[in-house]
Amino acid sequence: MTQERQYTWEDAVAAIGQDFGGDADHVADEAIEVTAVIRYCEPWEISNPIYWDKAVAKQAGYSNIVAPWSGLRQTWAYKGFWRPGDTTRFPKDVSKDQTARLGSFRPAGKPLPLPRTGQGIVTDLEIEFFEPACVGDRLNVKGLKLVNVRPRQTRVGYGAFYNTMSELYNQRGQLVARFNFGLYSYIPGAQQPQR
Q: In the CATH hierarchy, which fold is given to the domain comprising 9-84+105-188?
C-alpha cells in the first residue's frame, strides 16, 4: 500500500505558474440543447429572447439560441462522473469511506499540490468572455493553472487563498471563456504552524 504524499502550503506556493490540467481534455458529455437552455432559464425567469428564440438570436448576430453565461462552467461544460458499470460514489458505510462526492468540474490531470483541509469557501470567480456558447456547441475545458497561493491565518482557521485558471473552448477550437476561480481552503480552528 503506497502512502499518499502530504503537501504543505509551501509546496503549493512553489507550484505557482504550473498547469495541472494534463494532456486530456475535459469534454462535455453532450452538446448544448435548446430544451436544456429553456429549462435553465425557466426557474430563474431569465427572459432575454436570445435564450428562447432562434430567430431573435440570429437577428442579433448569433448562430443559434445562446446559452446563458452563468451556466457555462458547471452546466454546459459538465462531464458526468458516473456511468453504468462504474463503482458507486456513495458507499453504504460512509464512516469508512468519506470520498462520496458529486462530479468534478476540473480537467483530468495531476492533482494540485495542496495540503488536506476540512473546509473551503469560494472567494471569487472572474470570467473573461470571447465567443458565445450556442445551441449545438459542445464545450471543452482545458488546463488548470495554479495562479497564486497566499497562506493566511484567519478567524475561521489556518489555510490559504488560491486561484486556478482554466479555459473553455467550443468544438471548433474557438476560445469561449477564461475562468479564474478563487478559494480559501482551511482547517477549521487551526493555527498557523510555528517555524
A: Thiol Ester Dehydrase; Chain A (3.10.129)
Alpha carbon distances (Å) from 38 to 48, 63, 165, 177: 11, 17, 29, 21
Sign, CA dihedral 38-25-87-5, equals: negative
Please report, for the chain, the start and end positions of each structural domain, with discontinuous segments joined by +: 9-84+105-188
User: What length is written for the chain?
Assistant: 195
Q: How many CA atoms lie within 13 A of 169 on its CB side?
A: 12
pLDDT in tens, 101-155: 444 445 556 889 999 998 999 999 999 999 999 999 999 999 999 999 999 999 9
Write the Ramachandran bin of 139: left for phi over 0, alpha for psi from -120 to 50, otherwise beta: beta
Measured distance CA(127)–CA(49) in Å, rounded = 23
